[in-house]
Design goal:
about 290 residues; mainly alpha; two-stranded antiparallel sheet; 4 strands; about 75% helix; about 5% strand
């Protein structure tokens, strides 16, 4: 197949914009971090609802109150985990997340009951899974950034960046190793992935992150190695899960927000699994 310069330029430009936006959101301040993950949250939810509707037509019948209420309910988790560090005037986002979440916990079941009873439990299950799959991991990424007070700059920046960079490094290294030495398919869900590429990506991620931790001294090498391994392994499962979801929906990409790279779920599928797993490690060994 001939090399397509137009496709290459489109993908390259999109990738540059993506990296710039991500780094600006991650590094500027706590507000940009929160806004970045809020945008990812609503974008991923919109694509999730659309894809579920493709393999389960009944889910298309949910009311607008159900559709946007469940998104808002998930966003309450992100608000809550800002830990009283973000305010609008004198109102804490944590308090907003708590009280709005309580309100939606009462209203959403009532809204769902008004829908057709025959599809109530199935739709409830898909919506509940969306909270676990999308909202909870992103809320825990917010928590990683806001768990420590303003005086502790080391962990507040290091842990989220460590998750993101581990995923980026793993994706890149797995692709390179798989392209050179990949022979054994990893899964029928994603035929292009190989055991060699996956293993090489994980190993090189651990080595790279451990070396960076040794140089920067922002986190001890053992914790850095463990977190990078967790992010790489769980991120791979996240990638496979989203591939399965797309296969069930019969689509190539979850969306088209990023030309040449797909949608929000395509870009953050690994993070949705890695965020939760890394938070669990941090809760036991770092907090």
């Amino acid at each position: 197949m001939a090399f397509n310069w137009q496709t290459f330029r489109t993908r390259s430009l999109t990738a540059v914009v993506f990296v710039v936006v991500m780094l600006a959101g991650l590094l500027w301040n706590r507000w940009t971090y929160f806004i970045l993950f809020s945008v990812i949250h609503f974008g991923a939810w919109a694509e999730y609802i659309k894809m579920v509707g493709k393999f389960n037509p009944d889910y298309k019948k949910i009311t607008l109150l159900h559709r946007y209420g469940i998104m808002a309910g998930g966003w309450c988790l992100l608000l809550f985990f800002t830990h009283d560090l973000l305010y609008v005037f004198s109102i804490s986002l944590t308090d907003v997340g708590f009280w709005l979440g309580i309100l939606l916990m009462v209203l959403l079941p009532l809204i769902m009951i008004l829908e057709t009873k025959l599809i109530f439990f199935r739709n409830l299950g898909y919506s509940a899974w969306g909270l676990v799959y999308i909202s909870l991991p992103l809320a825990l990424m917010i928590e990683l950034r806001h768990h420590h007070p303003l005086t502790n700059h080391t962990l507040t920046l290091t842990l989220p960046l460590l998750v993101i960079f581990s995923i980026w490094i793993n994706d890149t290294m797995a692709y390179l190793v798989g392209s050179v030495a990949g022979k054994t398919p990893l899964s029928a869900i994603s035929p292009k992935k190989t055991w060699e590429g996956t293993g090489g990506g994980i190993l090189l991620t651990i080595i790279t992150i451990s070396w960076l931790a040794y140089l920067t001294k922002r986190l001890n090498v053992v914790d850095a190695a463990a977190i990078s391994a967790i992010a790489a392994v769980s991120g791979t499962f996240g990638d496979l899960f989203e591939s399965k979801l797309k296969r069930m929906a019969g689509v190539k990409d979850s969306g088209s927000i990023m030309p040449g790279h797909g949608g929000f779920l395509d870009r953050f599928d690994s993070l949705l699994f890695a965020g939760t797993c890394v938070w669990i490690y941090a809760a036991f060994f770092l907090f």
